[in-house]
Design a protein that fits this description.
Helices cover 40% and strands 17% of the residues. It is α/β, with parallel strands linked by helices.
Length: 308
């Protein structure tokens, strides 16, 4: 380390004597990595119906808004279609001081006939996350299907999720089950069942605040109940009653709906949660940048002061 880098990064106070006079010298302290890091999902820009928004423009938007990262789950050949290689996209993120927060991953985990293919895809996902220096796999549950089969599907999924979780942990990564309406992990009872049947060492929870509420859960109570297993968050605000299958009409920018985010932040502060909070806005009546700006205003004014 040369002297210039030392002065930039070190936090050292020394005492020297010059001409018989004591002189205290203090070098500036590098900022510690924040406990909470804020990101947004590419989904809002990628799936916007009004205009085809390039990934490069999205990255600039996130940087301009002061975010720390992006949740990025690339579709097949998506980077190539956007004019990037993995390396050039990683370089752009570094230039804009952004990180990959996580990668969404789904499958019919309960089906033995599909588990080999799921495992192969899962290992590729882990490799991609490691390439970007990320660690979070957000586990999207299978579709809901017949109501009478849901409990059995959860029971059959649990051992395979334990296996995936162990592989991730052995690689320095982690998985978190992501409750979501229209899937087999929707209601409070279904959340409890998958948490009971999986090993806390390997399978964490990655709550989606909006989907838990639309699924009939008390978000604050569920976050508190599983506070020792939290790995990642989707912050989503919603309002009104969910009418299957479309939850789009329920979506709101943060602070415009019914989710009690300040109370959630108090819980995170009490447990010293350290990790990503990802704003997950699937769709909006605004432009993506307008929507993201509204949510960031709420975060800056109402949430960051609670747990900085």
């Amino acid at each position: 380390m040369d002297r210039r880098q030392f002065i930039k990064n070190a936090a050292i106070t020394s005492v020297i004597i010059v001409g018989g006079t004591r002189v205290d010298t203090c070098f500036a302290k590098a900022k510690p990595k924040p406990a909470i890091r804020w990101s947004m999902g590419w989904i809002l820009w990628r799936d916007f119906k009004g205009k085809n928004i390039p990934l490069s423009e999205t990255i600039q938007n996130l940087s301009d808004l002061g975010l720390d990262g992006i949740e990025f789950t690339p579709r097949k050949d998506e980077l190539l279609k956007q004019g990037f290689t993995r390396e050039s996209f990683r370089d752009l993120l570094a230039e804009k001081k952004l990180s990959v927060a996580g990668n969404y991953f789904g499958g019919n985990f309960f089906d033995p006939d599909q588990q080999d293919n799921i495992m192969s895809s899962f290992k590729s996902t882990l490799e991609n996350l490691k390439f970007y220096g990320a660690k979070n796999v957000i586990i999207g549950p299978p579709g809901r299907g017949k109501e009478e089969e849901i409990k059995e599907k959860i029971k059959k999924s649990a051992p395979f999720l334990n296996e995936l979780g162990k592989i991730a942990k052995d690689s320095g990564l982690q998985i978190g089950v992501h409750p979501h309406v229209n899937t087999i992990i929707e209601t409070p009872e279904e959340i409890d069942l998958i948490m009971e049947l999986t090993d806390a060492k390997y399978v964490k929870m990655a709550p989606d605040t909006g989907h838990i509420q639309l699924g009939g859960g008390n978000v604050v109570d569920i976050v508190r109940k599983y506070s020792n297993r939290l790995s990642y968050f989707h912050l989503k605000d919603v309002s009104g009653k969910f009418k299957r299958p479309n939850f789009g009409p329920n979506l709101r920018e943060l602070g415009k709906g019914e989710v009690n985010f300040p109370e959630i932040m108090k819980i995170l502060k009490s447990i010293k949660y350290s990790g990503w909070l990802n704003v997950e806005q699937d769709s909006t009546s605004m432009t993506p940048l307008e929507s993201a700006t509204e949510s960031m205003k709420y975060i800056t004014s109402n949430l960051k002061p609670i747990y900085t």
